Amino acid sequence: MNYRRDKLERLARVAHLYYEEDKTQGEIAELMCVSRPLVSRMLNEARNLGIVEIRVHSPARSAESLAEWMCRTYDLHSSMLVAEEESDDIINYTMAKRLLTYIEDQKPTVVGVGWGTVIGIAAKMLERVPVHRNSIQTLCPLLGNCNVLSRQYHSDENVRMLAEAYDAQPVFLHAPAYYSSEADAKRMRETQQYKNVVSQWEKLDLAVVEIHDDSIIDRTGYLCQEKAVGYAAGYGVDAEGNVIPLTYSIMRIPLHMLERCRRVIGICAAGTSAQAVDGILRSGLITDVLAQDAMAEQLLRETE
Question: pTM to 2 decimals?
Fold first, then answer.
């Protein structure tokens, strides 16, 4: 019983700091000596247990008005918002369906693919129902592969599955994402397979990436970047949207090639922190965003 009471008091403390003292999740994490993702989970649990009760007294903003606000605030070409669902799994599934529609609408020729939950779901969808009539000629990875079992964090595997479904030509990197020494990374960049991928990056007209927060470190072994609040395509950014220099090597698309890509869609899977999304959108790396309408609401509230 004491354990449960202590836990409830701890949840109430976190909720008080966040909702009544207006502290950020990062500040709370420092105060309580825990990770930022744990603070996010504790806030969710506090709401589920009724410790926090949120009431909305003003008329809900429409998804259309939220999407317009997102585009205007972050200088985006488009903002695609999905509604709240019963579970994160359903939300991510809905996003994957919307992503496939977006890709078809863009009629791209060369597509670059990153890693993440929604990208993996979309690839699996097409594995069952391939779409052979489309504009895509080539698919390539945007960064190397993670050393984890889950194939959704292997860019080459996502490329393989999507290329088969779209009847397109896959170009693989066959390289890990992280290198402990620049010498090893340099040797990889001198290989023909790396040069083949670079030739596709130069022609890229659609890049598909997911926006991640610090939880990506636990899931994939992603090396933490100091002061980073969000990650996309192997790039970490701070709260102001500045790309953070690395102290190690990542096999990833060069920044200038990503920046000149016609469309870069950033996907905010369920559970991604608002701080991470805000940082990445401020960076200008993303031209289009796919997120929950609740995420847009939260970003709007935090800027008011």
Answer: 0.77
